[in-house]
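Data availability (excerpt). All sequences and predicted token strings are deposited with the supplementary files. A representative entry, diguanylate cyclase, is shown inline so that the format can be inspected without opening the archive.
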Amino acid sequence: MSIITSRIAYNVDNFGEQAVETAKLIFLWDAEHDQRMWDLMCDDVTFIGPLPDQYANGKEEYKESIKEDFDFWFDLYDEHYILEYYDDEVALVSGSYLVKFRETEPVFFMHRQRFSMLFINVDGAPLLKHIHLSHPDNLIQEGETYPYMFGQDLRKMIDDMKRSATNDAMTGLYNRNFFEANYHGLNNMISTPPYGYVLYFDLNGLKAVNDKEGHEKGDRLIINFAQSLKTAALEVVVQSVTLRTGGDEFLVIAPHATLEQVGALLRKVKQEFKQRCAMLSPFASFAMGFVHLKEGMELKDAVSLADERMFRCKRYIRSQR
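Structure token line:
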């Protein structure tokens, strides 16, 4: 028998503590889908699992019984290991840990798993002879190996909550929470040449629409303008991020756009606005300010300057009425 454990560099001397270290390594390698975990077990290892009739005698049966483990990626938290008994030949280790599926998985699942493990001394190294796993809280439905349906619903709920936190409920665009939560990445995005533009938009006449034609039409105006911006940005600019920063104000970050593309974007927005918004109300129009990004410029500074220029445009439009 090849005793791989004899090559593990233990930080402890006695057999019991070495068994604890081996237990930790087995669970770590299980989480990482590392097949070396099997080298830490006896060929005739026995396994009792948390599922009904889950029992295995020998490595091959054990592998078959937990093969679904390797369909998911998970991490371990809050690990507790107790050395219940040991002498020179055997060691009994028990404890518990939290299993949490990673965010990349299609389901969300977190549960506490309890274990007891019997190790025997084989050529001076602890090998797993028996393991018993149990779940204090069993959410598994009939026919499932994992509580997949529950976890899938929970993952959707979590994703929906995250989306609602960073996406504007009315327009579907990213919101200010998204801007703040992802500021570092957005700032890095604008920091490499060729340097593009930041554009700030504001709807004119929204208050008049709300007062004279009702808030329902005002909401429709906001939604249609958001779609105008998004459609124009996707069509004209290769890479861009469109946000509703609040109320009737919108932001387009185009990190590598050219001045020609900004001009084309503005023309496209006007075209979309005429089709989607002007027909809703004669009071509606929009103002825009933009900033050409430069080396070393912070995104928040660029947004602030674009906002300031947008208000100049807004004041000019008012003066022409």
